[in-house]
Amino acid sequence: MNSDFSEYISEQIDVNTHIMWFEKSNKYIVVNDLLNNLILNRIDTDKFPIKISLLEQNKINSEKLKPVSDNIKNLLEECNTEYENINSQPSILIADEYIHKSKFKFNERIVKIEYSDERLKSLIDPKFEHLKCNKNEETTYKIVEKNKKINLFKNEKFLGSWGKEKMHEFQGKVSMELTSFFHGMNDSDWTAVFHGSSLCKENSCLMLTGDSGSGKSSLSAILISDNFTLIADDFSPMDDKGIHYNFPSAISIKEGFYNEAKKLYKSFSELNEYYINDIKGNVKYLPDYNGKSILKSNCKTILNVKFGSDLKNEIKLINKGKALEKILPDSWISRDIKDAKAFINWAKSSSFYDLTYNDNKEAVKMINKIL
User: Fold this and answer.
1) In this structure, what DSSP letter does residue 96 have?
2) Is 346 helix (H, G, I), strand (E, B) or coil?
3) Which of 145-159, 286-300, 336-350 has the lowest mean pLDDT?
4) pLDDT tens, 127-162?
């Protein structure tokens, strides 16, 4: 291999589909067989034109290959650029205790979160309202705003600082911290976190993925009414064995699904309503009322969900590369090479589907058939 290049992985995951990972940038790219060979050749030899045998095999002449060569060179330069995460210690003093605080209990573990103001509390508390308790905590987190940045501390230790434009990253960090605490795990124990909702029925587990507003959370609420058990809503953490762990937040239900939710859950009208932003509007947080609690499950079935009144009720197996191209941009994956290998092995051993639907009952029937 070119000595200037960092560690990388190239694995075939489907027909004419490879996934490549690069250590320095922690980037994943999905490519076909030909492009995979061209990239590997470039890494190994750092020379063009490509070997004649490869050109003859794919009927490409060297002139036509020149633009491809330039594109591969630029791609590899980007993939071989070190990722920088600048998050220095803030120069602020934190109080011994803040008046805005909550305690949450899950898996027999209790955490306290203190906030420097009421607004910060509204960012975290609503989705965990069903976990509130008054017992003594084991760990304390403090969330403090200073100079237009939100700072997070665990037992007085600084964990990070985020500006307004990185609010999603801040909430993700808090979610990861709480998940680790509730399961007695460390940051290094996690391989990936997906923007998806995981549910179980008997011994089968699936994860719903899709764009914001695609209907993931609504479908989760529908499935729970059909004896599925919620493991995680919109935030699905996974270890290096492909096991998905419980993230115990309630399901975020948007206004457009209120009427359907009322039909499924008699107490839905009694839930508090919260305004999120101009895009998401108002939401209610629906706990899993079935009384079950599954802490973890092996998840190998992934459905990309899309609801629409003009869509067919259809479920079909899709190429793993196409599925990962949709999933990867919103996922966090550990930078460690062992986790990169674990993630790729999980992808190779999993089944990916596209699910479109216009009828809730039909969606449930289709899902039950593939489990």
Assistant:
1) S
2) helix
3) 286-300
4) 999 999 999 999 999 999 998 999 999 999 999 999
**Structure confidence at residue 292 (pLDDT):** 76
Residue 338, amino acid = K
Kind and range of the H or E element at 103? strand 100-106
Say how many CA atoms lie within 13 Å of 165 toward its Cβ.
Answer: 0
- How many C-alpha atoms does 233 have within 13 Å on its Cβ side? 25
Higher pLDDT, 330 or 69: 330
* Mean of the per-residue pLDDT values of the chain: 89
Enumerate residues 6+ apart whose C-beta is below 8 A from 5: 43, 76, 80
HEC letters along 163-226: EHHHHHHHHHHHHHHHHHHHHCCCHHHEEEEECCEEEEECCEEEEEECCCCCCHHHHHHHHHCC
CATH architecture group of domain 191-370: 3-Layer(aba) Sandwich (3.40)
- Residue type for 195, please? H
